[in-house]
Specification:
117 residues; alpha+beta; 3 helices; single chain; 4 strands; four-stranded mixed sheet; 25% strand
Length: 117
C-alpha cells in the first residue's frame, strides 16, 4: 500500500520549499510577488517570504476545504497581505485536472497586497 500525499501536504511542501525540495518532495511551480509587494523595501519582502513559508494558522474559517492554498498576513509595512496557490498544467496554459499529480501539475504561489486581490 502506497501513501499518496494530500493536497494540503503538497501545498505545504511547495510553500515551505521556495525552490528547495522539502519533506523529501520537490513540488514544481513558480513564486510570484505582485507589483505592490515588489514596491516594498527588500527587508519587508524577505520578511513576507518567511511569513508565507511558516504560515500554519489554518482553521475551518480560513481553509474550509483543508487545502492550505490561501493565507492572510498582517505586516507592519505592507498592511494586509494575501498569498494564494493556483494549479496549472506543466506549461502554465490551463488549469490542472489533478493538483495531486506532480507530473501533470505546476503550482503558482502569488503574494499580494490585499488591495490587489
Amino acid at each position: 500500500m502506497s501513501l499518496r500525499p494530500t493536497l494540503a501536504a503538497l501545498n505545504d511542501a511547495f510553500r515551505s520549499q521556495l525552490g528547495v525540495p522539502s519533506f523529501g518532495v520537490s513540488v514544481p511551480g513558480r513564486y510570484v510577488f505582485t507589483a505592490g509587494i515588489e514596491a516594498l523595501s527588500p527587508e519587508a519582502q524577505i520578511d513576507l517570504w518567511q511569513k508565507v513559508r511558516e504560515f500554519d494558522t489554518f482553521t475551518e474559517d480560513n481553509d474550509p476545504y483543508g487545502e492550505h492554498d490561501f493565507g492572510s498576513i498582517d505586516h507592519p509595512e505592507a498592511g494586509r497581505v494575501f498569498w494564494k496557490i493556483d494549479y496549472y498544467d506543466p506549461t502554465y496554459t490551463k488549469g490542472s485536472e489533478n493538483p495531486c499529480d506532480l507530473t501533470r501539475t505546476a503550482r503558482v504561489l502569488t503574494v499580494m497586497l490585499a488591495s490587489e486581490y
